[in-house]
Design brief:
Blueprint (H helix, E strand, L loop, with lengths): L10 H34 L2 H8 L7 H19 L5 H28 L3 H22 L2
Length: 140
């Protein structure tokens, strides 16, 4: 029994690479949309609304909540930065993805410890989307 590998330039390999690239860009778009919206809400909504929606801002200083909103928007834009130039902005994408994984992991722990299962599940789903982007894009 023999095995053969496809050359890198084969149509099948190119097709797989194209699908992988489209999938990663789709995931990057979802991540960016979520974190831009979440960050924008943290920056613009009154604290009473944020406390009603999420609960945890009740025990956090307002400056921290607003600062987290800025961080989320900046990291989300970093995930999309390679749209401008892949070669120049790929390191920003990778840094942003690492930042988001750290943020999501910390928030997963915070929500799990406070027994806020809904938000813990949201962060688990975000991790399931962000980790493949990080791993898929680290290979140039």
């Amino acid at each position: 029994m023999t095995t053969s590998t496809l050359p890198v330039s084969s149509p099948r390999a190119r097709s797989r690479a194209a699908y992988r690239n489209i999938t990663l860009w789709t995931l990057q778009g979802w991540i960016a949309m979520f974190f831009i919206a979440a960050g924008y809400a943290k920056l613009t909504e009154p604290m009473t609304n944020l406390i009603t929606l999420m609960g945890w801002p009740a025990v956090a200083p307002e400056n921290m909540v607003r600062g987290l909103g800025v961080v989320e928007v900046v990291l989300a834009l970093g995930v999309l930065s390679p749209l401008l130039s892949w070669r120049l902005f790929r390191p920003i994408l990778l840094t942003s993805a690492v930042g988001l994984v750290v943020l999501e992991t910390v928030m997963f722990g915070v929500h799990a410890l406070s027994q806020d299962i809904g938000l813990a599940v949201v962060n688990a789903i975000l991790l399931a989307i962000t980790v493949p982007v990080l791993l898929g894009r680290r290979k140039a």
